[in-house]
Amino acid sequence: MMRSTHASLAAVMTWAATVVIVAAQSSQPFLPRELNEWTLEYTLSGGMAFRIHSVSLTSSGALAAGDSALGHRISARASDDTVAKVRGLLTLATRPKPSGRPIPDVPMTALVVKTGGKSYDIAAPSDLFKTLDDAFNAAVAQALIGEWRQSAWKLCKPVAQLGPADIDPAIESLIFQEDGTLSVTWPGGPRTTGVPHADVADYAGHYSVRPENGVIRMRIDGGRFVPGDFDGEGTFALADGTLTIRDAWFGTKQAKHKPDICELTFVRK
To answer: CA-based Rg of the chain, rounded to a whole angstrom?
Structure first.
């Protein structure tokens, strides 16, 4: 009886020692001490409405971001401050704890560091996720800035045929500035007298975006043509140099009535 008790105690002590060792290993940094060149890949996937949200960042600042639900897919440059902050947070990375069975409809998160020809699954402080999401949002907001021209549109409800009164001219110039201002110009308007000539905007205003949920809000401040059916709130998506704006309307220029359009596509001008 005594021998059985000793055997049981020894087994318990061995199990406890194993737990301590595993816990110690999981809480200690395990990436190479010198992280010179690396790529960090962050992926959030799953959910009731299946979604893939991803951010990839390299030690040189190259950033690739995408979100299947929002329609964003862009390449950008992260700031030096962002890269430095991520590099510092990677020194706190630990081995991930063993995960249980996937829970239906609950998104799964993955963090992978690639360096020195090897890949490491890691666990990291919550600050790392926030830093990467902030970099994602900043990259999306920056990718919107510049001049665009309308290249396509999509009807809310398909119809067999459209007449001249149902079609409005495509926007010639849609400009988003870094200071939060915007301007809209249709073709055929007046031009400046200086050289080179430039089109005079039909109206100007302000805008704001929320990249995390794809919302854009715009307003008109004034101009030589201010449409009465302007609707400045909608959603936007940026993918491979194309801008898609849904549910917003920049106004009807010359059609007899507002075209039944729910989606406008723009390309860089």
So the answer is: 27
